## 1
Amino acid sequence: MNFHEYQAKHLLAEYGIPVPDGRYVSRMDEVPYAQAAVAGPVRVVKAQAHTGGRGKAGGVKLVEGESALHEAVESLLGGRLVTVQTGAGGLPVSGVWVEPATSIARELYVSMLVDRARERVIVMASSAGGMDIEEVAATTPEKIITRAISPVVGLQAYQGREIAFALGLEGAQIGQMVKILTGLYRLFMERDASLIEINPLVVTTEGGLLALDGKFALDDNAGYRQPALLEWRDTTQEDARELAASAHGLNYVSLDGDIACMVNGAGLAMATMDLIKLEGGEPANFLDVGGGTTAAKVAEAFKLILSDGKVKAILVNIFGGIVRCDLIAQGIIAAAREVNLSVPTVVRLEGTNAEAGRTLLADSGLALIPENDLTLAARAAVRASRGETA
Protein backbone atom coordinates (compact mmCIF):
# COMPACT_ATOMS: atom_id res chain seq x y z
CA MET A 1 0.00 0.00 0.00
CA ASN A 2 1.52 3.28 -1.13
CA PHE A 3 1.25 6.70 0.46
CA HIS A 4 1.61 10.27 -0.73
CA GLU A 5 4.81 12.28 -0.40
CA TYR A 6 3.36 14.56 2.27
CA GLN A 7 2.35 11.52 4.34
CA ALA A 8 5.80 9.96 3.93
CA LYS A 9 7.40 13.22 5.05
CA HIS A 10 5.19 13.27 8.13
CA LEU A 11 6.52 9.83 9.05
CA LEU A 12 10.12 10.79 8.28
CA ALA A 13 9.87 13.84 10.53
CA GLU A 14 8.33 11.73 13.28
CA TYR A 15 11.47 9.58 13.27
CA GLY A 16 13.91 12.47 13.37
CA ILE A 17 14.72 12.74 9.68
CA PRO A 18 14.97 16.37 8.50
CA VAL A 19 12.37 17.42 5.93
CA PRO A 20 11.37 20.88 4.65
CA ASP A 21 8.47 22.61 6.40
CA GLY A 22 5.46 22.48 4.14
CA ARG A 23 1.71 22.64 3.84
CA TYR A 24 -0.81 20.28 2.23
CA VAL A 25 -3.46 21.99 0.12
CA SER A 26 -6.60 20.22 -1.11
CA ARG A 27 -8.81 23.28 -1.83
CA MET A 28 -8.12 26.65 -3.38
CA ASP A 29 -9.32 28.49 -0.26
CA GLU A 30 -6.40 26.88 1.61
CA VAL A 31 -3.78 28.60 -0.56
CA PRO A 32 -3.57 31.73 1.68
CA TYR A 33 -2.78 29.50 4.66
CA ALA A 34 0.00 27.84 2.67
CA GLN A 35 1.34 31.26 1.73
CA ALA A 36 1.51 32.22 5.40
CA ALA A 37 2.91 28.90 6.61
CA VAL A 38 5.62 28.37 3.99
CA ALA A 39 8.43 30.88 4.29
CA GLY A 40 10.35 32.46 1.44
CA PRO A 41 9.42 34.16 -1.82
CA VAL A 42 10.26 31.05 -3.88
CA ARG A 43 8.17 27.96 -3.25
CA VAL A 44 7.81 24.49 -4.74
CA VAL A 45 4.34 23.13 -5.56
CA LYS A 46 4.17 19.33 -5.90
CA ALA A 47 1.22 17.34 -7.19
CA GLN A 48 0.39 14.51 -4.79
CA ALA A 49 -0.05 11.29 -6.76
CA HIS A 50 1.26 7.76 -6.34
CA THR A 51 3.80 7.91 -9.14
CA GLY A 52 7.39 8.79 -9.81
CA GLY A 53 8.55 11.11 -12.55
CA ARG A 54 6.24 13.91 -11.42
CA GLY A 55 8.77 16.62 -12.21
CA LYS A 56 9.24 15.48 -15.81
CA ALA A 57 5.45 15.38 -16.25
CA GLY A 58 4.87 18.95 -15.03
CA GLY A 59 3.70 17.90 -11.59
CA VAL A 60 6.38 19.90 -9.75
CA LYS A 61 6.46 23.67 -10.20
CA LEU A 62 8.90 26.26 -8.87
CA VAL A 63 7.08 29.55 -8.31
CA GLU A 64 7.90 33.02 -7.05
CA GLY A 65 5.30 35.30 -5.50
CA GLU A 66 1.76 34.80 -4.28
CA SER A 67 -0.04 35.06 -7.62
CA ALA A 68 2.28 32.47 -9.20
CA LEU A 69 1.66 30.15 -6.24
CA HIS A 70 -2.10 30.51 -6.69
CA GLU A 71 -1.85 29.80 -10.42
CA ALA A 72 0.36 26.74 -9.92
CA VAL A 73 -1.97 25.21 -7.34
CA GLU A 74 -5.00 25.92 -9.53
CA SER A 75 -3.33 24.31 -12.57
CA LEU A 76 -2.65 21.06 -10.69
CA LEU A 77 -5.52 20.66 -8.26
CA GLY A 78 -8.37 18.55 -9.57
CA GLY A 79 -6.51 17.51 -12.70
CA ARG A 80 -4.84 14.25 -13.68
CA LEU A 81 -1.10 13.69 -13.74
CA VAL A 82 0.22 11.51 -16.57
CA THR A 83 3.75 10.14 -16.11
CA VAL A 84 5.75 7.28 -17.62
CA GLN A 85 4.55 5.15 -14.68
CA THR A 86 0.82 5.88 -14.82
CA GLY A 87 -0.07 5.13 -18.42
CA ALA A 88 -2.21 7.35 -20.61
CA GLY A 89 -5.04 7.69 -18.08
CA GLY A 90 -2.86 9.23 -15.40
CA LEU A 91 -3.81 9.64 -11.75
CA PRO A 92 -6.10 12.22 -10.12
CA VAL A 93 -4.50 15.08 -8.18
CA SER A 94 -6.63 15.74 -5.11
CA GLY A 95 -3.98 17.71 -3.26
CA VAL A 96 -0.64 19.47 -3.60
CA TRP A 97 2.28 19.92 -1.24
CA VAL A 98 3.77 23.40 -0.93
CA GLU A 99 7.25 23.85 0.55
CA PRO A 100 10.06 26.43 0.39
CA ALA A 101 12.68 26.12 -2.33
CA THR A 102 15.94 24.58 -1.11
CA SER A 103 19.45 25.62 -2.09
CA ILE A 104 21.05 22.33 -3.20
CA ALA A 105 24.74 21.46 -3.38
CA ARG A 106 24.37 17.69 -4.05
CA GLU A 107 21.63 15.13 -4.54
CA LEU A 108 21.85 11.63 -3.01
CA TYR A 109 19.59 8.57 -3.00
CA VAL A 110 18.75 6.46 0.07
CA SER A 111 16.22 3.65 0.49
CA MET A 112 15.39 0.59 2.57
CA LEU A 113 13.60 -2.48 1.29
CA VAL A 114 13.32 -6.23 1.84
CA ASP A 115 15.82 -8.40 -0.02
CA ARG A 116 13.95 -11.70 -0.11
CA ALA A 117 16.92 -13.63 -1.48
CA ARG A 118 19.09 -12.62 1.49
CA GLU A 119 16.15 -12.56 3.92
CA ARG A 120 17.29 -9.18 5.17
CA VAL A 121 16.27 -5.56 5.14
CA ILE A 122 18.87 -3.76 3.06
CA VAL A 123 20.00 -0.17 2.73
CA MET A 124 20.57 1.14 -0.77
CA ALA A 125 22.35 4.42 -1.33
CA SER A 126 23.79 6.25 -4.31
CA SER A 127 25.54 9.48 -5.14
CA ALA A 128 23.24 9.70 -8.20
CA GLY A 129 20.26 11.17 -6.37
CA GLY A 130 17.39 12.72 -8.30
CA MET A 131 17.55 10.00 -10.98
CA ASP A 132 15.49 6.83 -11.40
CA ILE A 133 17.38 4.17 -9.46
CA GLU A 134 16.58 1.65 -12.23
CA GLU A 135 18.43 3.85 -14.70
CA VAL A 136 21.39 4.16 -12.33
CA ALA A 137 21.48 0.37 -11.87
CA ALA A 138 21.46 -0.16 -15.64
CA THR A 139 24.03 2.47 -16.62
CA THR A 140 26.29 3.04 -13.59
CA PRO A 141 25.76 0.15 -11.16
CA GLU A 142 29.03 0.97 -9.40
CA LYS A 143 27.28 4.02 -7.94
CA ILE A 144 24.87 1.87 -5.93
CA ILE A 145 25.94 0.95 -2.39
CA THR A 146 24.10 -1.77 -0.46
CA ARG A 147 24.36 -2.99 3.12
CA ALA A 148 22.35 -5.88 4.59
CA ILE A 149 20.99 -5.36 8.11
CA SER A 150 21.10 -8.21 10.60
CA PRO A 151 17.62 -8.93 12.02
CA VAL A 152 19.30 -9.81 15.33
CA VAL A 153 21.29 -6.64 16.04
CA GLY A 154 19.67 -4.19 13.60
CA LEU A 155 21.39 -1.38 11.74
CA GLN A 156 24.83 -0.68 13.18
CA ALA A 157 26.48 2.74 13.35
CA TYR A 158 29.54 1.50 11.47
CA GLN A 159 27.29 0.58 8.52
CA GLY A 160 25.94 4.12 8.48
CA ARG A 161 29.48 5.51 8.53
CA GLU A 162 30.53 3.20 5.70
CA ILE A 163 27.66 4.47 3.58
CA ALA A 164 28.44 8.10 4.47
CA PHE A 165 32.10 7.66 3.48
CA ALA A 166 31.12 5.93 0.23
CA LEU A 167 28.84 8.87 -0.63
CA GLY A 168 31.66 11.32 -0.07
CA LEU A 169 30.16 12.93 3.02
CA GLU A 170 32.48 14.48 5.56
CA GLY A 171 32.58 16.14 8.96
CA ALA A 172 29.22 16.60 10.67
CA GLN A 173 27.45 15.13 7.65
CA ILE A 174 28.65 11.66 8.61
CA GLY A 175 26.89 11.81 11.96
CA GLN A 176 23.80 13.22 10.27
CA MET A 177 23.72 10.29 7.84
CA VAL A 178 24.05 7.77 10.66
CA LYS A 179 21.13 9.44 12.45
CA ILE A 180 19.02 9.46 9.29
CA LEU A 181 19.66 5.77 8.56
CA THR A 182 18.97 4.83 12.19
CA GLY A 183 15.65 6.69 12.01
CA LEU A 184 14.79 5.07 8.69
CA TYR A 185 15.39 1.60 10.09
CA ARG A 186 13.22 2.29 13.15
CA LEU A 187 10.48 3.61 10.87
CA PHE A 188 10.80 0.59 8.58
CA MET A 189 10.46 -1.93 11.40
CA GLU A 190 7.96 -0.19 13.66
CA ARG A 191 5.58 0.77 10.84
CA ASP A 192 5.85 -2.50 8.87
CA ALA A 193 7.18 -0.92 5.70
CA SER A 194 7.97 -2.80 2.52
CA LEU A 195 9.83 0.18 1.04
CA ILE A 196 11.09 3.57 2.18
CA GLU A 197 12.80 5.83 -0.33
CA ILE A 198 14.30 9.32 -0.14
CA ASN A 199 15.11 10.65 -3.58
CA PRO A 200 16.70 13.04 -3.41
CA LEU A 201 18.33 13.31 -0.02
CA VAL A 202 20.13 16.59 -0.60
CA VAL A 203 23.21 18.21 0.81
CA THR A 204 22.22 21.86 1.15
CA THR A 205 24.61 24.71 0.38
CA GLU A 206 24.83 25.20 4.16
CA GLY A 207 26.17 21.64 4.45
CA GLY A 208 23.19 19.90 6.08
CA LEU A 209 21.18 16.89 4.88
CA LEU A 210 17.51 17.25 3.98
CA ALA A 211 14.93 14.80 2.61
CA LEU A 212 13.38 16.65 -0.34
CA ASP A 213 11.12 13.78 -1.40
CA GLY A 214 9.87 10.69 0.35
CA LYS A 215 8.14 7.45 -0.50
CA PHE A 216 6.64 5.02 2.00
CA ALA A 217 4.95 1.71 1.19
CA LEU A 218 3.22 -0.41 3.83
CA ASP A 219 3.34 -4.20 3.73
CA ASP A 220 -0.30 -5.03 2.95
CA ASN A 221 -0.14 -8.15 5.10
CA ALA A 222 0.66 -6.01 8.15
CA GLY A 223 -2.15 -3.53 7.64
CA TYR A 224 -4.09 -4.90 10.62
CA ARG A 225 -1.19 -3.83 12.86
CA GLN A 226 -1.15 -0.27 11.49
CA PRO A 227 -4.74 1.03 11.76
CA ALA A 228 -3.59 4.66 11.83
CA LEU A 229 -1.79 4.22 8.50
CA LEU A 230 -4.79 2.48 6.95
CA GLU A 231 -6.79 5.66 7.59
CA TRP A 232 -4.37 7.48 5.24
CA ARG A 233 -5.19 5.18 2.31
CA ASP A 234 -6.16 7.09 -0.82
CA THR A 235 -8.29 4.73 -2.89
CA THR A 236 -8.55 7.27 -5.74
CA GLN A 237 -4.95 6.36 -6.58
CA GLU A 238 -5.72 2.65 -6.98
CA ASP A 239 -7.04 0.68 -9.94
CA ALA A 240 -10.83 0.47 -9.59
CA ARG A 241 -10.94 -3.23 -10.49
CA GLU A 242 -8.13 -4.10 -8.08
CA LEU A 243 -9.95 -2.19 -5.34
CA ALA A 244 -13.22 -4.00 -6.04
CA ALA A 245 -11.38 -7.33 -6.05
CA SER A 246 -9.86 -6.75 -2.63
CA ALA A 247 -13.34 -6.06 -1.22
CA HIS A 248 -14.35 -9.60 -2.25
CA GLY A 249 -11.18 -11.33 -1.09
CA LEU A 250 -9.79 -11.65 -4.62
CA ASN A 251 -6.21 -10.93 -5.67
CA TYR A 252 -6.39 -9.01 -8.95
CA VAL A 253 -3.81 -7.09 -10.96
CA SER A 254 -4.64 -5.43 -14.27
CA LEU A 255 -2.36 -6.17 -17.23
CA ASP A 256 -2.29 -5.04 -20.85
CA GLY A 257 -3.35 -8.19 -22.74
CA ASP A 258 -6.72 -9.48 -23.95
CA ILE A 259 -6.91 -12.98 -22.39
CA ALA A 260 -8.36 -12.84 -18.88
CA CYS A 261 -7.26 -15.42 -16.32
CA MET A 262 -9.16 -16.81 -13.34
CA VAL A 263 -7.10 -19.22 -11.26
CA ASN A 264 -7.08 -20.56 -7.69
CA GLY A 265 -3.56 -20.16 -6.34
CA ALA A 266 -0.90 -17.53 -6.98
CA GLY A 267 1.71 -19.98 -8.27
CA LEU A 268 -0.79 -21.64 -10.59
CA ALA A 269 -1.86 -18.20 -11.82
CA MET A 270 1.74 -17.30 -12.69
CA ALA A 271 2.18 -20.60 -14.54
CA THR A 272 -1.08 -20.00 -16.42
CA MET A 273 0.05 -16.57 -17.58
CA ASP A 274 3.41 -18.01 -18.63
CA LEU A 275 1.64 -20.60 -20.80
CA ILE A 276 -0.55 -17.95 -22.41
CA LYS A 277 2.61 -16.03 -23.32
CA LEU A 278 4.27 -19.20 -24.57
CA GLU A 279 1.33 -19.85 -26.90
CA GLY A 280 1.58 -16.32 -28.31
CA GLY A 281 -1.13 -14.59 -26.27
CA GLU A 282 -1.11 -11.75 -23.75
CA PRO A 283 -2.70 -12.00 -20.28
CA ALA A 284 -5.21 -9.27 -19.40
CA ASN A 285 -4.88 -9.78 -15.67
CA PHE A 286 -3.61 -11.77 -12.73
CA LEU A 287 -6.60 -13.09 -10.78
CA ASP A 288 -6.29 -15.49 -7.86
CA VAL A 289 -9.69 -16.47 -6.43
CA GLY A 290 -8.08 -18.41 -3.57
CA GLY A 291 -8.19 -22.01 -2.44
CA GLY A 292 -11.72 -21.98 -1.03
CA THR A 293 -13.39 -20.97 -4.28
CA THR A 294 -17.16 -20.40 -4.06
CA ALA A 295 -19.85 -19.63 -6.62
CA ALA A 296 -20.15 -16.11 -5.20
CA LYS A 297 -16.42 -15.49 -5.63
CA VAL A 298 -16.48 -16.87 -9.15
CA ALA A 299 -19.40 -14.58 -10.03
CA GLU A 300 -17.55 -11.52 -8.71
CA ALA A 301 -14.43 -12.62 -10.59
CA PHE A 302 -16.39 -12.85 -13.85
CA LYS A 303 -17.84 -9.37 -13.24
CA LEU A 304 -14.34 -7.97 -12.73
CA ILE A 305 -13.05 -9.64 -15.87
CA LEU A 306 -15.96 -8.46 -18.01
CA SER A 307 -15.56 -4.88 -16.79
CA ASP A 308 -12.33 -4.81 -18.79
CA GLY A 309 -13.42 -3.91 -22.31
CA LYS A 310 -10.29 -5.27 -23.99
CA VAL A 311 -10.90 -8.90 -22.87
CA LYS A 312 -11.53 -11.16 -25.88
CA ALA A 313 -11.27 -14.56 -24.16
CA ILE A 314 -11.19 -16.03 -20.65
CA LEU A 315 -9.11 -18.91 -19.32
CA VAL A 316 -10.33 -20.47 -16.08
CA ASN A 317 -7.79 -22.82 -14.51
CA ILE A 318 -8.95 -24.44 -11.27
CA PHE A 319 -7.33 -27.21 -9.26
CA GLY A 320 -9.96 -28.87 -7.10
CA GLY A 321 -8.18 -29.80 -3.91
CA ILE A 322 -10.02 -28.12 -1.06
CA VAL A 323 -13.33 -28.13 -2.94
CA ARG A 324 -14.60 -30.64 -5.53
CA CYS A 325 -14.41 -29.85 -9.23
CA ASP A 326 -18.09 -30.66 -9.80
CA LEU A 327 -19.05 -28.04 -7.21
CA ILE A 328 -16.68 -25.56 -8.84
CA ALA A 329 -18.25 -26.31 -12.24
CA GLN A 330 -21.71 -25.66 -10.81
CA GLY A 331 -20.46 -22.33 -9.48
CA ILE A 332 -18.93 -21.39 -12.83
CA ILE A 333 -22.16 -22.24 -14.66
CA ALA A 334 -24.29 -20.28 -12.19
CA ALA A 335 -21.93 -17.29 -12.38
CA ALA A 336 -21.81 -17.40 -16.20
CA ARG A 337 -25.61 -17.31 -16.34
CA GLU A 338 -25.78 -14.51 -13.77
CA VAL A 339 -23.46 -12.23 -15.74
CA ASN A 340 -24.79 -13.32 -19.19
CA LEU A 341 -21.35 -14.52 -20.20
CA SER A 342 -20.77 -14.11 -23.93
CA VAL A 343 -16.97 -14.00 -24.08
CA PRO A 344 -15.41 -17.35 -25.19
CA THR A 345 -14.33 -19.07 -21.98
CA VAL A 346 -11.96 -22.02 -21.72
CA VAL A 347 -12.23 -23.94 -18.44
CA ARG A 348 -9.57 -26.37 -17.29
CA LEU A 349 -10.51 -28.39 -14.20
CA GLU A 350 -8.19 -30.82 -12.46
CA GLY A 351 -8.44 -32.62 -9.15
CA THR A 352 -11.29 -34.25 -7.24
CA ASN A 353 -14.29 -35.09 -9.46
CA ALA A 354 -12.67 -33.28 -12.39
CA GLU A 355 -14.36 -35.47 -15.01
CA ALA A 356 -17.79 -34.84 -13.50
CA GLY A 357 -17.06 -31.12 -13.53
CA ARG A 358 -16.06 -31.14 -17.19
CA THR A 359 -19.25 -33.03 -18.07
CA LEU A 360 -21.36 -30.39 -16.33
CA LEU A 361 -19.59 -27.66 -18.31
CA ALA A 362 -20.02 -29.46 -21.63
CA ASP A 363 -23.73 -29.99 -21.01
CA SER A 364 -24.43 -26.44 -19.78
CA GLY A 365 -25.27 -24.99 -23.19
CA LEU A 366 -23.08 -21.97 -22.40
CA ALA A 367 -20.03 -20.60 -24.22
CA LEU A 368 -17.77 -22.73 -22.03
CA ILE A 369 -15.00 -24.82 -23.57
CA PRO A 370 -13.85 -27.61 -21.19
CA GLU A 371 -10.24 -28.82 -21.34
CA ASN A 372 -8.30 -31.22 -19.15
CA ASP A 373 -4.79 -30.28 -20.32
CA LEU A 374 -3.39 -26.87 -19.32
CA THR A 375 -1.30 -26.41 -22.46
CA LEU A 376 -4.27 -27.24 -24.67
CA ALA A 377 -6.42 -24.89 -22.59
CA ALA A 378 -3.96 -22.02 -23.04
CA ARG A 379 -3.77 -22.75 -26.77
CA ALA A 380 -7.58 -22.75 -27.04
CA ALA A 381 -7.80 -19.43 -25.17
CA VAL A 382 -5.27 -17.82 -27.51
CA ARG A 383 -7.21 -19.09 -30.56
CA ALA A 384 -10.45 -17.79 -29.09
CA SER A 385 -8.92 -14.35 -28.46
CA ARG A 386 -8.12 -14.20 -32.18
CA GLY A 387 -11.60 -15.23 -33.23
CA GLU A 388 -10.37 -18.65 -34.41
CA THR A 389 -12.26 -21.88 -33.90
CA ALA A 390 -10.76 -25.17 -32.79
## 2
Amino acid sequence: MKIHPLKDGDFLVTKEKTFHYLEKSEGLKGLKMATQPFLIETTYEVILLDAGLGLVENGIPTIWENIYATGLQPKDVSKILLSHLHKDHIDGLVNTSEEGWKLNFPEAEVYLQKREYDFALSKSENPSFDLEVLDFIIKNAKIVWMNEDKGNLSSEISFEVTGGHTPYHQVFFIRENGETAFYGADNLPTTAYLKYQIAFKTDFDGKLAMEARNQWEKRAKEEYWKILLYHDMEQAILEL
Protein backbone atom coordinates (compact mmCIF):
# COMPACT_ATOMS: atom_id res chain seq x y z
CA MET A 1 0.00 0.00 0.00
CA LYS A 2 1.22 3.47 -0.88
CA ILE A 3 -0.33 6.56 0.74
CA HIS A 4 -0.05 9.95 -0.98
CA PRO A 5 -1.23 13.14 0.80
CA LEU A 6 -2.65 15.57 -1.78
CA LYS A 7 -2.36 18.84 0.10
CA ASP A 8 -4.30 21.83 -1.25
CA GLY A 9 -2.44 24.18 1.08
CA ASP A 10 -2.71 25.86 4.49
CA PHE A 11 -5.67 28.16 5.02
CA LEU A 12 -7.42 30.52 7.37
CA VAL A 13 -11.13 29.74 7.52
CA THR A 14 -13.50 32.52 8.58
CA LYS A 15 -16.76 32.01 10.46
CA GLU A 16 -18.49 32.44 7.09
CA LYS A 17 -16.60 29.32 5.92
CA THR A 18 -14.49 31.16 3.36
CA PHE A 19 -11.00 29.73 2.82
CA HIS A 20 -8.02 32.07 2.42
CA TYR A 21 -4.44 30.98 1.82
CA LEU A 22 -2.69 31.45 5.14
CA GLU A 23 0.04 33.64 3.68
CA LYS A 24 -2.63 35.98 2.25
CA SER A 25 -4.87 36.12 5.33
CA GLU A 26 -3.34 39.04 7.25
CA GLY A 27 -6.01 40.91 9.17
CA LEU A 28 -8.55 38.09 9.01
CA LYS A 29 -9.80 36.06 11.94
CA GLY A 30 -10.60 32.39 11.89
CA LEU A 31 -9.29 28.86 12.21
CA LYS A 32 -6.02 27.74 10.65
CA MET A 33 -6.01 24.40 8.88
CA ALA A 34 -4.80 22.45 5.89
CA THR A 35 -7.04 20.66 3.43
CA GLN A 36 -5.50 17.36 2.45
CA PRO A 37 -7.20 14.56 0.51
CA PHE A 38 -5.38 11.23 0.35
CA LEU A 39 -4.64 8.98 -2.60
CA ILE A 40 -4.05 5.34 -1.73
CA GLU A 41 -2.54 2.80 -4.11
CA THR A 42 -3.28 -0.82 -3.38
CA THR A 43 -2.42 -3.85 -5.45
CA TYR A 44 -5.79 -3.70 -7.16
CA GLU A 45 -6.89 -0.06 -7.39
CA VAL A 46 -6.33 3.62 -6.64
CA ILE A 47 -8.60 5.17 -4.02
CA LEU A 48 -9.24 8.85 -3.29
CA LEU A 49 -10.32 9.83 0.23
CA ASP A 50 -12.31 13.08 0.00
CA ALA A 51 -11.46 15.67 -2.62
CA GLY A 52 -10.43 19.04 -1.21
CA LEU A 53 -11.44 22.56 -2.12
CA GLY A 54 -11.58 22.39 -5.91
CA LEU A 55 -8.78 24.90 -6.46
CA VAL A 56 -7.60 25.62 -10.01
CA GLU A 57 -4.33 27.24 -11.07
CA ASN A 58 -3.45 28.05 -14.66
CA GLY A 59 -6.51 26.15 -15.78
CA ILE A 60 -5.45 22.90 -14.09
CA PRO A 61 -7.16 21.56 -10.94
CA THR A 62 -4.77 21.52 -8.00
CA ILE A 63 -5.84 17.98 -7.15
CA TRP A 64 -4.73 16.86 -10.63
CA GLU A 65 -1.33 18.49 -10.19
CA ASN A 66 -0.92 16.74 -6.85
CA ILE A 67 -1.85 13.40 -8.38
CA TYR A 68 0.58 13.91 -11.28
CA ALA A 69 3.33 14.48 -8.68
CA THR A 70 2.78 10.95 -7.36
CA GLY A 71 3.44 9.47 -10.79
CA LEU A 72 -0.22 8.57 -11.27
CA GLN A 73 -2.95 10.06 -13.44
CA PRO A 74 -6.43 11.29 -12.44
CA LYS A 75 -7.92 8.59 -14.68
CA ASP A 76 -6.26 5.97 -12.46
CA VAL A 77 -8.66 6.75 -9.60
CA SER A 78 -11.31 4.02 -9.45
CA LYS A 79 -13.08 4.81 -6.16
CA ILE A 80 -13.73 8.09 -4.35
CA LEU A 81 -14.81 7.72 -0.73
CA LEU A 82 -16.58 10.70 0.84
CA SER A 83 -16.62 11.03 4.61
CA HIS A 84 -19.25 13.78 4.58
CA LEU A 85 -20.43 16.53 2.26
CA HIS A 86 -18.93 19.80 3.51
CA LYS A 87 -17.60 21.82 0.61
CA ASP A 88 -13.94 21.51 1.57
CA HIS A 89 -14.29 17.74 1.17
CA ILE A 90 -16.22 17.56 -2.12
CA ASP A 91 -15.51 20.61 -4.27
CA GLY A 92 -12.36 18.99 -5.70
CA LEU A 93 -14.60 16.57 -7.59
CA VAL A 94 -15.61 19.41 -9.91
CA ASN A 95 -13.71 21.85 -12.11
CA THR A 96 -15.81 25.02 -11.92
CA SER A 97 -13.95 27.05 -14.55
CA GLU A 98 -15.41 29.83 -16.68
CA GLU A 99 -15.61 27.36 -19.56
CA GLY A 100 -18.24 25.39 -17.67
CA TRP A 101 -18.36 22.71 -15.04
CA LYS A 102 -16.77 19.30 -15.50
CA LEU A 103 -16.10 16.33 -13.29
CA ASN A 104 -12.45 15.92 -12.37
CA PHE A 105 -12.87 12.13 -12.11
CA PRO A 106 -15.68 11.20 -14.50
CA GLU A 107 -14.90 7.47 -14.57
CA ALA A 108 -14.52 6.94 -10.83
CA GLU A 109 -17.26 5.59 -8.59
CA VAL A 110 -18.21 8.09 -5.87
CA TYR A 111 -19.32 6.51 -2.58
CA LEU A 112 -21.47 8.60 -0.27
CA GLN A 113 -24.02 8.13 2.49
CA LYS A 114 -27.61 8.72 1.37
CA ARG A 115 -28.57 9.89 4.87
CA GLU A 116 -25.71 12.41 4.88
CA TYR A 117 -26.92 13.67 1.51
CA ASP A 118 -30.46 14.12 2.83
CA PHE A 119 -29.05 16.04 5.80
CA ALA A 120 -27.02 18.30 3.50
CA LEU A 121 -30.13 19.16 1.48
CA SER A 122 -31.78 20.42 4.66
CA LYS A 123 -28.94 22.92 5.23
CA SER A 124 -29.31 25.28 2.29
CA GLU A 125 -28.42 28.30 4.47
CA ASN A 126 -25.35 26.69 6.01
CA PRO A 127 -22.13 28.05 4.41
CA SER A 128 -20.32 24.77 5.12
CA PHE A 129 -22.22 23.21 2.22
CA ASP A 130 -22.07 24.03 -1.49
CA LEU A 131 -25.35 22.56 -2.69
CA GLU A 132 -24.86 23.76 -6.25
CA VAL A 133 -21.67 21.73 -6.58
CA LEU A 134 -23.26 18.81 -4.74
CA ASP A 135 -26.20 18.81 -7.14
CA PHE A 136 -23.85 18.73 -10.13
CA ILE A 137 -21.97 15.78 -8.64
CA ILE A 138 -25.14 13.83 -7.93
CA LYS A 139 -26.47 14.38 -11.45
CA ASN A 140 -23.24 13.64 -13.31
CA ALA A 141 -20.94 11.36 -11.32
CA LYS A 142 -21.12 7.58 -10.93
CA ILE A 143 -22.74 7.64 -7.51
CA VAL A 144 -22.75 4.56 -5.29
CA TRP A 145 -25.33 5.19 -2.57
CA MET A 146 -24.55 3.86 0.89
CA ASN A 147 -27.23 3.30 3.54
CA GLU A 148 -25.66 0.83 5.97
CA ASP A 149 -24.02 1.79 9.26
CA LYS A 150 -20.96 -0.33 8.53
CA GLY A 151 -19.70 -2.78 5.95
CA ASN A 152 -17.16 -3.63 3.28
CA LEU A 153 -16.77 -1.95 -0.08
CA SER A 154 -14.17 -4.47 -1.21
CA SER A 155 -11.81 -7.00 0.32
CA GLU A 156 -9.55 -4.06 1.29
CA ILE A 157 -12.00 -1.29 2.21
CA SER A 158 -14.41 -1.11 5.14
CA PHE A 159 -16.42 1.78 6.55
CA GLU A 160 -18.33 2.80 9.67
CA VAL A 161 -20.92 5.54 10.07
CA THR A 162 -19.84 7.27 13.27
CA GLY A 163 -21.74 10.54 13.35
CA GLY A 164 -19.98 13.20 15.38
CA HIS A 165 -18.86 15.98 13.08
CA THR A 166 -22.07 15.58 11.05
CA PRO A 167 -25.00 13.22 11.73
CA TYR A 168 -23.89 10.53 9.26
CA HIS A 169 -20.18 11.23 9.03
CA GLN A 170 -18.31 8.06 8.12
CA VAL A 171 -14.75 6.80 8.48
CA PHE A 172 -12.78 4.36 6.35
CA PHE A 173 -10.27 1.56 6.89
CA ILE A 174 -8.03 0.34 4.09
CA ARG A 175 -6.14 -2.85 4.87
CA GLU A 176 -3.55 -4.64 2.77
CA ASN A 177 -0.62 -6.95 3.55
CA GLY A 178 -0.91 -6.42 7.30
CA GLU A 179 -1.09 -2.61 7.05
CA THR A 180 -4.08 -0.51 8.13
CA ALA A 181 -4.70 3.03 6.94
CA PHE A 182 -7.43 4.73 8.99
CA TYR A 183 -9.20 7.85 7.77
CA GLY A 184 -11.20 9.56 10.50
CA ALA A 185 -11.82 12.67 8.40
CA ASP A 186 -13.21 15.54 10.52
CA ASN A 187 -13.73 13.40 13.61
CA LEU A 188 -9.94 13.07 13.78
CA PRO A 189 -8.50 15.76 11.48
CA THR A 190 -5.34 16.78 13.36
CA THR A 191 -2.97 15.42 16.01
CA ALA A 192 -4.31 18.04 18.44
CA TYR A 193 -7.64 16.21 18.54
CA LEU A 194 -5.87 13.35 20.34
CA LYS A 195 -3.73 15.57 22.54
CA TYR A 196 -6.68 17.60 23.83
CA GLN A 197 -9.75 15.53 24.70
CA ILE A 198 -12.44 18.07 23.89
CA ALA A 199 -16.04 17.83 22.72
CA PHE A 200 -15.88 20.47 19.98
CA LYS A 201 -18.89 22.79 19.66
CA THR A 202 -18.34 22.96 15.90
CA ASP A 203 -19.35 19.29 15.66
CA PHE A 204 -22.95 18.11 15.37
CA ASP A 205 -22.29 15.82 18.35
CA GLY A 206 -18.93 16.70 19.84
CA LYS A 207 -19.19 14.25 22.72
CA LEU A 208 -19.81 11.34 20.35
CA ALA A 209 -16.79 12.32 18.24
CA MET A 210 -14.60 12.62 21.34
CA GLU A 211 -15.63 9.16 22.58
CA ALA A 212 -14.85 7.66 19.17
CA ARG A 213 -11.38 9.23 19.20
CA ASN A 214 -10.64 7.62 22.56
CA GLN A 215 -11.47 4.20 21.13
CA TRP A 216 -9.53 4.80 17.91
CA GLU A 217 -6.41 5.91 19.77
CA LYS A 218 -6.39 2.67 21.76
CA ARG A 219 -6.96 0.52 18.66
CA ALA A 220 -4.40 2.46 16.64
CA LYS A 221 -1.70 1.67 19.19
CA GLU A 222 -2.66 -2.00 19.41
CA GLU A 223 -3.06 -2.54 15.66
CA TYR A 224 -0.37 -0.13 14.35
CA TRP A 225 -2.67 2.02 12.27
CA LYS A 226 -1.51 4.77 9.98
CA ILE A 227 -3.88 7.63 10.80
CA LEU A 228 -4.56 10.02 7.90
CA LEU A 229 -5.02 13.63 9.03
CA TYR A 230 -7.09 15.75 6.66
CA HIS A 231 -6.65 19.18 8.30
CA ASP A 232 -3.24 18.95 9.98
CA MET A 233 -0.83 21.60 8.70
CA GLU A 234 2.31 19.85 9.94
CA GLN A 235 1.72 16.10 9.78
CA ALA A 236 -0.25 14.13 7.21
CA ILE A 237 0.18 10.60 8.58
CA LEU A 238 0.37 9.70 12.27
CA GLU A 239 1.67 6.38 13.64
CA LEU A 240 1.25 5.98 17.40
